[in-house]
């Protein structure tokens, strides 16, 4: 997920600079997913208001690695263990900082 540090509830609240930065980071994460896991593709998703399926009242952009048989849009849910999530986070972080990444992160890019 890509989440701005400023509280913004929905897409409608984004200024041009924040929206541009979110899309840049979405691209960076999608490219890192390609390096880390070699998916067949990637998808992004973002929701606004209850009818738009928004459940968290802070803007965020989802980025998904995609595979031919993943059934992402069938709303099938399965639990992923904490260990698997931690391993995936480390793999993605490694890819984000990798010299192979065309827009790799550096320590200077980190906002804390």
Q: Could you characterize the architecture of this molecule?
A:
Residues 1-73 form the HIT domain. This is HIT domain-containing protein. With 112 residues, this protein is α+β, with helices and mostly antiparallel strands. It has one domain: HIT-like (HIT family, subunit A), CATH 3.30.428.10. The chain has 2 helices and 2 strands; from the N terminus they run αββα. It has helices at 16-37, 82-96, and strands at 41-45, 62-66. It has a two-stranded antiparallel sheet.
| Spatial shape | globular
Helix content: 25-40%
Cα separation of the termini: 16 Å
Quick one: biggest sheet? 2 strands, antiparallel
CATH class: Alpha Beta
Count of DSSP E strands? 2
Helical run tally = 2
The name of the CATH architecture is 2-Layer Sandwich
How many domains, as an integer? 1
Q: Roughly what fraction of the amino acids lie in strands?
A: 5-15%
Query: Mean pLDDT across all residues, rounded?
Result: 91
Motif (Histidine triad motif): 58-62
Domain HIT: 1-73
Organism: Glutamicibacter ardleyensis
Protein name: HIT domain-containing protein
Provide key terms for this protein.
112 residues, alpha+beta, HIT family, subunit A, two-stranded antiparallel sheet, 9% strand, globular, HIT-like
Kindly summarize this structure in a few lines:
With 112 residues, the chain is of the alpha+beta class. The protein contains two helices and two strands, in the order αββα. The model has no long low-confidence stretch (mean pLDDT 91).
């Amino acid at each position: 997920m890509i989440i701005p540090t400023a509280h913004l509830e929905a897409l409608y609240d984004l200024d041009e600079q924040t929206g541009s930065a979110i899309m840049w980071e979405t691209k960076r994460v999608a490219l890192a997913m390609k390096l880390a896991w070699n998916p067949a593709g990637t998808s992004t998703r973002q929701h606004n208001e209850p009818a738009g399926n928004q459940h968290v009242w802070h803007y965020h952009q989802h980025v998904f690695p995609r595979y031919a048989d993943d059934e992402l849009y069938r709303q099938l849910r399965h639990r992923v263990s904490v260990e698997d999530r931690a391993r995936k986070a480390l793999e993605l972080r490694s890819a984000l900082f990798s010299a192979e990444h065309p827009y790799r992160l550096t320590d200077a890019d980190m906002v804390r």
